[in-house]
Sequence to fold (308 residues):
Amino acid sequence: MTRNTRYILQFVGITYFLSWTLIGVFAFSGGRWQTAQAYTIALVYMLIPGLTAIVVQKYLAREPLVETLALRFRPNRWFLVAWLVPVALAIGALGAGVLVPGAGYSPDLSGFFQRYQDLLSPEQIERMRLDMEQYPLSPFWIGLANGLIAGVTINAVFALGEELGWRGLLVHRLSGLGFWKMSGIIGLIWGVWHAPIILLGHNYPQHPAPGVGMMILFSLLLTPLLVYFRLKSRSTVAAAVFHGTINGLAGLSVLMLAGGNDLTVGLTGAAGLATIALADLLLLAYDRFLASEPLMFGPRRPGTGIRE
Fold:
């Protein structure tokens, strides 16, 4: 077993054990998803991969954290790209959702309120409706602004807790495999890691069991974008900005949709998966034909399988 393999297995094993134990204790103690307590648990869950990566790199591998986890905060143009691409993905998923059989455009937000029927009382939904009517702008634009702000602030902080592991330690350890194979392995590990919270109702409350497979597909499709921004920016912080902004804007993809369900519409539904798959193809075309320093088709970087 190589040193790289040993450290990867240690990282994945510890991360899965701590994460899944946390969710197991929460579930067996009677905890329910979609509650304030579950929100706190989810935030802790997001921090575990990064904390584990720090422990593995600092105390087991005894390697410098800044270099191996790419923990660099100085922004460059790829930070901006990573911040804005989620806007296109959310709007694209909204447009794709309109095409899903049984779904349709809902400018009056009737579909949005319908999604809350099982979570809120009629009085709470009516209060939400009245509050939205008082907004000076369309709820879409307010949601967009809020998602962008959250994406580079609080969401990015907790997303960095994941990215130090997935796009930090794992990119460092797997870069010799080449861009696409590395992205596939990372996406699979990341997707499976979500399984316990998906089964509790995260992202797919209507279909938790099939949702596990959908979340793995989502993670596999999204990882090439995350890895690309991580490598181009030379920072896991840029990946965290992308990840945090995706989380902040996910609601936009269903805000003006009626019908459909959690498997068919939204960023994590079939509409979103199709949108992200298209983004992956555009990424490949960009890197092949437009990038001044391509990662996938240029000369190999010495000592790795990544092309640049």
About this structure: Residues 199 and 208 are 5 Å apart (CA to CA). The longest helix spans residues 3-28. DSSP finds 14 helices and two strands in the chain. The mean pLDDT is 93.
